[in-house]
Design brief:
With about 525 residues, this protein is of the alpha+beta class. The chain is built from 20 helices and 23 strands. The strands form 6 sheets. Strands 2, 14, 15, 16 and 17 form a 5-stranded mixed sheet that branches. Strands 21-22-1-23 form a 4-stranded mixed sheet, covered by helices on one side. A hairpin with a 4-residue loop joins strand 4 and strand 5. The two termini are about 20 Å apart.
Length: about 525
Amino acid sequence: MKTKLTYQQEIGKIIAKLRSDRGLTQAELAEGISTSQSAIHRIEQGDQNISLEMIKRFSEFFGNQILSINTSISQGITVEGGRELSGEITINTSKNAAVGLLCAALLNKGKTTLRHLARIEEVYRIIEVLESIGVKTRWKNRKRDLEIIPPAELSLDNMDMEAARRTRSIIMFMGPLLHLKKHFTLPYAGGCSLGIRTIDPHLRALKHFGLEVDAITIPGSYICDVKDDTLKNYPDRYIVLIERGDTVTENALMAAALYPGHTTIVGASPNYMVQDVGFLLEKFGVKIRGLDSTTMEIDGVAEINKDIEYSPSEDPIEAMSFIATALTTNSEITILRAPIEFLEIELEVLSSMNAKIEKSPEYLSHNDRTRLVDLTVKKSMLIAPQDKIHPMPFPGLNIDNLPFFSVIAACAKGRTLIHDWVFENRAIYITDLSKLNANVELLDAHRVYVEGPTSWRATELVSPPALRPAVVILIAMLAAPGTSILRNTYYIDRGYQDFVNRLHHLGAEISPLTGI
């Protein structure tokens, strides 16, 4: 029986044929549409999701309309919900660690190999940016490991700005690049006009290393200049972060790594992705004390030129996704390789909601640093917690895990207050659960009441334009008896590797919308 091609594979075949018919190499096509050769290779192999914007670029280049697509139904899925799931799932390495580690690899003149790296859209965007500025990358070990080799001189003028604008992680190029270039320009992170205040914590931290950033003069761009006298003056540096953020801590760590003096960072985030970057820097020869605390001390080095292999830790947010899936569908699922240090508060809150979750003895991740356990989520009669559920900087409840508590709360008897104080409008996305028959009351842009239990009802929705809320809607659809349709699932592909197929492994009935 012939295996049905996925929509990525069908698009890849079309593009490969058009390229071949015109006698073009992958490199020539990549140059023609301003992307990398490796991106063309992944697209033609069907290994990469492709946005409507990229399809338009291919169509304009070839002079052919590759696809006729209604934008509201592209990358959609059909979910047959109301089924009990079962089985085991192994947690992948962390998406947020992956992007930080890719940025940190710029510090090393030698070869950096990242083992079992998450193969997701966010990672592909950073790889495309790296390749465009001259960095060589190569997937090996059946596309599990990524090898990164920098050039003698980075070609920042050739940066793939389109790929850079589509990832918020581009802001973490600042810390490494200030040691490599005296002047460079980066696009606004994530394609948003975030402005000077949004990156102020980064600017205040990196000014200690001579970085000055103009985010006003050229709309959509950070113009970066490095004051050489400040960078090469080597007294002890004492940095107080005005925001205990993950990316600003990573930026400061990377800047301190190639500063051959002593740096103290106060108000740092010791969250999981920060620790992964710190562990890699230690393998580079950088000495770091307090990596698991809010005060970090770094003794940097003048040069890093080593061939290093590093294994990122597992993803606590992905683990929480499957915990929420099990509880929402009232299923028994075993979750292997969950990073317990970054889930302890979440599990304690779930315990207060009467969730039955068993833990194995602890063991270490492949990096020999991160503590892991196996979790078995049992069928549970959930109740609403007595207190509101709200995030805090690590070691508090992770902000990325908060949305999952909304769909769990919808299954719990009683009324739960969810308080998302960090993001201005993300709480609003929780109200989409009402379209699946959940009882959700929006109090303001930060707070919602969710009252359960819910008799889920299948529906058709366009995915919220945010990663975690999109996954929350998919989880609710798994619980809703009948056929649901979720359109525009690119946001899920941004942060999850092969998520739909892994749900299939647990017994979920999900299929792509047809109509290419």
